[in-house]
């Protein structure tokens, strides 16, 4: 889930705007939770393809 879709229960504003202390705290917590939080799905797929290619290359070289 992305921050731009979350609505704060305290102030009813988007959490990404950080209008109140609750928004700011939740925004900070969510940004720290995931290493890949800032990556979009296309970037994650590209990273996965590169990882698979690297593993295949290493397997081919050792055979």
Helix and strand topology:
Blueprint: H1 21-33, H2 41-62
Structure description:
- It is built from 2 helices and no strands.
- With 63 residues, it is mostly helical.
- It has one domain (3-62).
- The mean pLDDT is 84.
Low-confidence stretches: none
Beta-strand segment tally: 0
What profile does the largest beta sheet have? none
Shape: rod-shaped
**End-to-end separation:** 42 Å
How big a fraction of the residues is strand?
under 5%
Radius of gyration computed on alpha carbons:
18 Å
The structural class is: mainly alpha
Helix run count: 2
Total number of domains: 1
Overall residue-averaged pLDDT value: 84
The H-and-E topology, N to C, reads as HH
The helix content is 55-70%
Q: Which descriptors would you attach to this protein?
A:
63 residues, mainly alpha, 2 helices, 0% strand
Describe the structure in brief:
With 63 residues, the protein is mostly helical. It has helices spanning 21-33, 41-62.
